[in-house]
UniProtKB/TrEMBL annotation:
This is Alanine racemase. The keyword Isomerase applies. It comes from Chungangia koreensis. The modification N6-(pyridoxal phosphate)lysine is found at K39. Its EC number is 5.1.1.1. The active site is at K39 (proton acceptor), Y266 (proton acceptor). The keyword Isomerase applies. One of its GO terms (molecular function) is alanine racemase activity. The lineage of its organism: Bacteria, Bacillati, Bacillota, Bacilli, Lactobacillales. Residues 245-370 form the Alanine racemase C-terminal domain. Pathway: Amino-acid biosynthesis; D-alanine biosynthesis; D-alanine from L-alanine: step 1/1. HAMAP family: Ala_racemase (MF_01201). Substrate binds at R137, M313.
Amino acid sequence: MNIHYRPTYAEIDLEAIRSNIEGLKTYLDEKTGVIAVVKANAYGHGDIEVAKAAIEAGAIMLAVATPEEALRLREEFPETDILVMGPVSPAFAEVAAAERIMLTAFSVEWMNRVLEEADKFLVPLQVHAKVDSGMGRIGVRSIDDWEELIHLIRTSSHFILDGIYTHFATADEESKSFVDEQATVFKEFISQLPEKPRLVHAANSAAALRYRQLQFDAVRFGIAMYGFPPSPVVKEVLPYELKPALSLYSEIAHIKKVEVGSTIGYGQAYTAEQEEWIATLPIGYADGLQRGLSGQEVIIGGVRAPIVGRICMDQCMIRLSKEYSIGEQVVLIGKQGEEEIRMEEWAERLQTIPYETAVLLTNRVNRVYK
Ligand SMILES: *Cc1c(COP(=O)(O)O)cnc(C)c1O
């Protein structure tokens, strides 16, 4: 079943993933744990394979967004701690307890609803209580709610408070002031606890790489584990080199020389200004090569060539300076010769972030592991 005929594929360098984690571990205190964030199919890189590499490199826990993501990983990793960071339905709590999947306790209301299910738990449910210190997404915002939430967890034999955490809204931005504000709030919430739980954590990639003083017991390492700088600001101050793990390849499926004035693709959006070599690649927006990437360059024969005309669902056309053979390799993301195209370049063109362009690479793109 693993035969793939289509020459369009993503190659994931698991050594790069391990190296990005090892670099972080060297940079942080020895006792600080790395939580590998592998939500959204490991940012498009493949959850199982990335999780395996992360555990090999010393990650202490896996973090995901949804129950389904956690269950998939549990099948493959029976022993590893798995935390669901998103707000899950209380109906999942019973399964989570049985599968030893940790959930995020993010409000008093949620906790009360889970307590109603708790008689069904065969083993206690481990939770990480969430503080909304300024992100404004999930978590408790007042000390009163915090005390109530912690009390509900600690006074029921159906729950174990394994950790507490918060999330920064601006760790990847130039200004440090809001990060400081959030850290102050979080520390106040920590000080209200009768007893410190096993794991206190706050930092995402940007905070882990920029604010050593906010590492607490563990950091949640997502985007930088895949080798993408969290933002241009963080890129300037990286404490070690991040290696991009994902390369995206295709090849020439068809090539022709067109006359001056020939038009290419839907809407005749491109017109040849001279005699030109136009090649067709079997990759399109249904693969994650979004239509907004028209004009983006690819690498072929060690030089850059532009995508011309509208990107179709399954194919796109590029303009070449000379004839190439059918089957000639084309690099959409990655290195060839002296040239390199990084995901950040796509993100910039699309006015978004590499997180989004990476997760939008679809299942149709075969992932090959190196
Ligand atoms: C996605 C996510 C992370 C990882 O963030 P990166 O910027 O990718 O490192 C950490 N914590 C929470 C709560 C998240 O949702």
